[in-house]
Write a structure and sequence with these properties.
6 helices, mainly beta, 20 strands, 375 residues, elongated, 33% strand
Length: 375
């Protein structure tokens, strides 16, 4: 299913994967810097909150500077600075061309979460945790462009003092106005903390492969290139999102609107990425938008030879329901097939020329890129 973002999409700047060219370890005075189809087969699970919290001291509230300092001291060694080497010239910690981003420790087995666009073109990856001086080799285990999430892994024996996982919160419990803390390596400045609030919920952004990421957390905590993949935390130090994009009017720097992949998506996707298997997602091949009155969801475009067009959908159809779930806004279509598998049949009810029609559509498998499929 192809449901492209509308209001936000028009002013999104380039992905924070416009990765900042990295500098050598220890080069900065701050202690050195570097700087996206559920097949249902995954059996690995994200470390539970109870087990993760065993490595985390009691929660600290972000109410004043002292509290923020205490929270920072508690979580700083769990935030990774990620350097990526790619082929070609230029300079980075490996003496070649590349960039950097951020990440956070998921568990004591060495798994680290980051953005797909941070590591997508890397031939070699290193991380530095907390204020450590040495880079640690890491391996990309799995990545998913559709959600802009990736999992890399280090050998726990290489981490002096051991790995300190962050606790995962719940995005569904968030409210606008709640405090947020972002920690990462903007412009290669590792260990940088910024604060703000949840400024909106349920946003849509475009993934690296052109599909829509739903349920995104918007924050005014300053996020800049290099923050990609780092954690967005709540006042208890729990991860509520993975910082991914910013919106701006032309500059690649922060303008007070940042977006984080919700932690609920992390809980769903990361266990599958840890298996190294490719995620297969259901696909309709339809682009929709709101009608002029805003009361209906209308088919705006159909991908040729895709399930929606093969199943009888037509441009101009008003979508009433998908798989028995009512459709009131464009993102409802993606949500309605999210728990389906490629190859399953779904009933789609549309209104065409004033008449209600029920169509039986066989879902396909989402392609690697929305753009290569004509939108």
């Amino acid at each position: 299913m192809l449901s492209m973002p509308t209001r936000v999409q028009n002013f999104l700047s380039a992905m924070l994967g416009a990765l900042v060219v990295a500098v050598a370890f220890g080069a900065l005075a701050v202690g050195g810097a570097f700087e996206t189809d559920d097949d249902g087969s995954a059996t690995t699970t994200v470390e539970s909150e109870s087990s993760a919290s065993s490595a985390t001291p009691p929660a600290t509230s972000v109410r004043n500077a002292t509290d923020v300092s205490a929270l920072y001291d508690r979580v700083k060694d769990s935030v990774a600075y990620i350097a990526v080497r790619s082929s070609g010239g230029g300079t980075n910690p490996f003496g070649g061309q590349g960039g950097s981003g951020s990440g956070f420790v998921l568990d004591k087995d060495g798994y680290i979460v980051t953005n797909q666009h941070v590591v997508s073109n890397g031939s070699q990856v290193q991380v530095r945790l907390g204020e450590g001086d040495e880079g640690i080799d890491a391996k990309v285990i799995g990545s998913d462009a559709s959600t802009d999430l990736a999992v890399i892994k280090v050998d726990p024996k290489d981490v002096e003092g051991g790995l300190k996982p962050l606790e995962l919160g719940e995005a569904k419990a968030l409210k606008v106005g709640q405090p947020t803390v972002a920690i990462g390596s903007p412009f290669g400045l590792s260990g940088t903390l910024t604060t703000g609030v949840v400024s909106a919920l349920g946003r849509n952004i475009e993934s690296p492969n052109g599909f829509s990421i739903d349920g995104v957390v918007q924050t005014d905590a300053a996020i800049n290139p290099g923050n990609s993949g780092g954690p967005l935390l709540n006042s208890s130090g729990q991860v509520i999102g993975v910082n991914a994009q910013i919106a701006s009017s032309g500059s690649a720097s922060n303008s007070g609107v940042g977006f984080a992949i919700p932690v609920d998506t992390v809980r769903e996707v990361v266990p599958q990425l840890k298996t190294g298997k490719k995620i297969s997602r259901p696909y309709l091949g339809v682009s929709t938008g709101e009608s002029r009155t805003g009361d209906d969801v209308v088919v705006a475009e159909l991908v040729p030879n895709a399930p929606a067009s093969e199943g009888g959908m037509r441009v101009g159809d008003e979508v009433v329901s998908v798989g028995g779930k009512p459709v009131g806004k464009p993102e409802d279509i993606a949500a309605a097939i999210a728990d389906k598998q490629p190859g399953q049949n779904v009933q789609i009810v549309v209104t065409r020329d004033g008449e209600r029609r029920t169509l039986n559509v066989k879902l396909g498998t989402r392609p690697e890129s929305a753009q290569r499929q004509g939108g």
